[in-house]
Amino acid sequence: GNSVTQMEGPVTLSEEAFLTINCTYTATGYPSLFWYVQYPGEGLQLLLKATKADDKGSNKGFEATYRKETTSFHLEKGSVQVSDSAVYFCALTSGGYQKVTFGIGTKLQVIP
Amino acid sequence: KAGVTQTPRYLIKTRGQQVTLSCSPISGHRSVSWYQQTPGQGLQFLFEYFSETQRNKGNFPGRFSGRQFSNSRSEMNVSTLELGDSALYLCASSLSVGGPNEKLFFGSGTQLSVL
Asked: Could you tell me the CA-to-CA distances from B23 to A13, B29, B42, B115 in Å, in that order?
């Protein structure tokens, strides 16, 4: 079956530091890959996505590249802000239906 | 445009009771899916409904059930509650034409506590 592996954290960074959250996956077929973000007390919001190998998803300064050869989709941001503090979920879908497989979620804390 | 609305926001129940959670999708969205979120297990897929039909189901016991109405609103029911059912239950809606570009929109969730 499908699975997504990511570090649980928490990851604590100072403001303006570089962020990397690793994500690797196992899936049948050709999955689409996503990063979702969950702010405290809220549901999940789609942050970025990539639907085929070598695609780069980007949004709000965050980027992730679909690497088929290493089955990875690492999230990066060059300079984090306090407002980026949230839980980040790597996820995938495979097939036409809305069954999303999520990673465990990585909690990010950015301190001033 | 209103987002995905889940009610109630918080619920406290005791073991053995049953509970019904409600989800109203974004207007025009026909697919509703449900997820259970717990600190230890993360987000687990429960089921997905499209046009009043369950289209996909996760690995949960039969105590977890759902349905979708003709207006696309969905309800999720858990019978004979157990302590381990305490979780945040998230609902997501989508247009559901399927395919890799489909985007899910999540509600804020219902926090269920079983005592």
From this structure: 36, 12, 20, 24
- The string of pLDDT tens digits covering residues B70-107 is 999 999 999 999 999 999 999 999 886 655 567 789 99
Phi-psi region for residue A104, left (φ > 0), alpha (ψ -120 to 50) or beta?
Answer: alpha
Listed in sequence order, the DSSP H helices in A1-112 are none
Q: Which two tokens stand for residue A72?
A: 């990875």
Q: pLDDT (tens digit, 9 = 90+) per residue, A42-71?
A: 889 999 999 899 999 999 999 999 999 999
Sheet holding A62-65, edge to edge: A19-21, A75-77, A62-65, A56-59
Q: Which of A46, A41, A49, A31 is nearest to A101 (CA)?
A: A31
Name the minimum distance, in Å, from the CA of A92 to any CA of chain B. Answer: 10
Smallest CA–CA distance, residue B58 to chain A, in Å, is 8
Find residues 23-42 of chain A whose CB sits inside 8 Å of chain B. Answer: 32, 36, 41-42
Of the candidates A33, A27, A29, which has an alpha carbon nearest to the alpha carbon of residue A55?
Answer: A33
Q: Single out the residue of A19, A21, A71 nearest to residue A50, CA to CA.
A: A71
Q: Note whether A96 contacts B98, CB cutoff 8 Å.
A: yes
